[in-house]
Amino acid sequence: MAAAANGMVGLESALRVVHQSMVQTGLIGWADVARVMSAAPARIGLLEGHGTPLEVGQPAQITLYDASREGTFTTADLHGRSENSPYIGRDLPGRVEWTIHHGRVTVAAGAVVEDFNA
Fold this sequence. Notes:
By secondary structure, the chain is α+β, with helices and mostly antiparallel strands. Helices cover 24% and strands 25% of the residues.
């Protein structure tokens, strides 16, 4: 194990892997995905405003995902310092098109917005 790379990234591939392994196989539906990947973690972490329905006048917390897209997961999909993922080179469905966090766009047209804190 001394030659193994430290850690494994997963956030960039998580929704696509769940789509492939759980939704496409019929094990769970999209409502279950929202529950287990958003609502339940937000509840456990006591994060107000996360995993809740959109409300007029409240900052949005939303991910827009195109389930009809297909593509190969590559290191270009990784946005951290590590490139250690078992999914590199694997064909995965879907693509996160947009994310809005606290009302600010953090992913636009599939690309991370580098200055979203500005």
